[in-house]
Amino acid sequence: MYHRTLHVALFGLDDGAGRAIRSVPCPDRFEVRFDAYSAFDADAFAASDIAILDLPELVHPGTFLPHVKTGLKIVLRATEIEAAQLDDADLAILHDIWLKPMPPMLVAFRFRKIIEDEKSLADLSLAQQYLDTAIDSIPELVWFKDARGSHLKVNSAFCKTVEKTKEQIEGRGHYYIWNITPEEYSQGEYVCLESEEQTMTARKTCLFDEQIKATHGMRQFKTYKSPLFDYDGSVMGTVGIAHDVTDLGNIETELEIFINSMPYAIIVLNTENSIININEKAEEYFGVKRRSVVDGDFDQWRRLVLGDAVVNSHDFSDSSFFTAVIGEREKTFEVNQRDIVDVFGNKTGQLRIYRDVTKERELEQRVLKSANTDYLTGLYNRRYLYERLSDHLGSPVTLVYLDLDDFKSINDDYGHQRGDRMLVETSSILVEAFPNDTCVRMGGDEFVVAIFGLQDVGSIEGRAHACLDAIRTRFAEDSAPGRTTGSMGIAADEGGILSIDELIRRSDEALYEAKRAGKSQCRIWTPSALAGSDGALFRTTQTGDFAKPLVDL
Q1: CB-based contacts of 356: which residues, under 8 Å, 6+ apart?
Q2: Contacts for 182-189 with beta carbons within 8 Å, 24 or more apart?
Q3: Phi, psi at residue 220, to the nearest 5°?
Q4: Alpha-carbon distance 387 to 122, whole Å?
Q5: Hey, which end of the chain has fewer CB within 10 Å, N or C?
Q6: 102-116, 231-245, 365-379: least confidently modelled range
Q7: Measured between alpha carbons, how far is 456 from 319 in angstroms, rounded to an integer?
Q8: Helix (H) or strand (E) holding 462
Q9: Is the pTM of this model over 0.85?
Q10: 41 Cβ partners below 8 Å, 6+ apart?
């Protein structure tokens, strides 16, 4: 806070008047220093803040003291006759006249009023400094106007915007300050003068969107305007604070152009999970219009578009995929979501980006199918079999190995076209016999069926025989030249202890045991079970060796 020292010079005052003046208490933040002189002292007079003169030679101070510093208060003590002789030059430099004789009490009273005036002026100056410092520190435009629209006070930001000084602005009106004519104003979309009338009529703070023509083009402002009230409660003017949102508006326009140029659907949410913007691609993806979506609840909207089943079955994490029926078409989307945060790291909204990957997924599935299936038969290939077996290591697995008998001679005698047709038909018979299992073409005329989980070997053998019977019957009935049968070998790893290669080798050994036994047969390898085939009883040892037939049934 301020602290002020007042220098009071007393020229020619009697002791009673001097004591009365010194008896006046100092106001807060003030210190008063008194100096008494019996004769006039020019240096003391020039250094003082208050000078009280009671000298006969100074009865006409306007003549004797033609040069007085600004702010100096001069009090003249004079008789009524002397006061009557004062002219305009005298009165022009005097602050007060004390008529003699004056009681000490009245002297003290009049001096106290002078001190109180000094205190009021100091407080007013401080308040003025507060106001000027405050509004000049504000980056927004601030102005005070009277009821006629003249600018009483503006801040530095206002001056910078209009490129004029405070001296040029204060006391002038809208047209001069903004360099526009009344004709331009009437033809444009400017609302400044009208908004001030509305504010004074409403007698409360109002918010306006205003366009102003500045030196370097149009500017857009968000403006708060409040009425200023006089002592009697009447409105005497307005105070306005304007935030220049031109650059923000330009950024918003640029952002709108940017998101609409993106090849993905973009949805912007606020912290209340309401939709505040979507781009043109979102309209296209989901068959909606922006005006019908904005301000709506996002969860309700996506349930309407995607369906409850899709929303409930997906967590929609930072990056995920989902499939939904949009416009009677099944589409697959990749969705990414990111929080929108302010400079303090506080969440202010969320950005969701949807990418239509339907065609990519379809292509991916086709490529994956091509990589994992046999091009001729449509069955899975050797590569896929190894992947599936790798996924089930340590679990019970049974392999059924099928080989067409004497197939090479068919290719040699009747051509590959006939052979290919027989392979395709064999694959169909195999799938019919093992519809829930993994059917694989290993290459050439060799096929494998992988059966996962603990299964009854006898049941599998029964299906294997049915498959062999179907092959024998199908190609026996075929009127085309070249007939064949099939042989099968079964390897059952009930404990999941064999490696992939070992399990395939065991099934292959069982197959060739069937071929050595006369073809169109099935043989089983199992580490711990008895199995029968073609009316012969076989016993399998712990090492997996095939037993010889003990007796014919």
Answers
A1: 264, 265, 285, 331, 332, 333
A2: 184/213, 188/213
A3: -110, 130
A4: 92
A5: N
A6: 365-379
A7: 44
A8: helix 457-477
A9: no
A10: 9, 11
Q: 163 — alpha (psi -120 to 50), left (phi > 0) or beta?
A: left
pLDDT of 216 strictly over 80: no
Distances (CA, A) of 363 to 146, 264, 296, 321, 358: 73, 19, 36, 16, 9
CB contact at 8 A, 314 and 334: no
- With contact defined as beta carbons under 8 Å apart, do 467 and 402 qualify? yes
Pick from 387, 392, 397, 386: which is nearest to 525 by CA?
Answer: 397
H helices of 214-330, in order, are: 246-261, 280-286, 290-293, 298-306, 308-313
Name the β-bridge partners of 402.
447, 488
CA 288 – CA 306 distance, rounded (Å): 12
- pLDDT, tens only, 431-468: 999 999 999 999 999 999 999 998 899 999 999 999 99
3-class DSSP state of 149: coil
376 touches 420 (CB < 8 A): yes
Cis peptide before 101 (omega within 30 of 0): yes
Structure tokens at 134: 């405050």
Identity of residue 431: V
Distance CA 460, CA 400 (A): 8
For 490, the token pair is 């079964």
Distance CA 448, CA 439 (A): 6
- CA dist 10 and 54 (Å) reads 8
Q: How far is CA 236 from the centre of its chain?
A: 44
423, 439 in Cβ contact below 8 A?
no
| Sheet architecture: strand order including 380-381 | 380-381, 438-443, 446-452, 397-404, 486-493, 522-525
Q: How many Å apart are CA 416 and CA 495, to the nearest integer?
A: 41
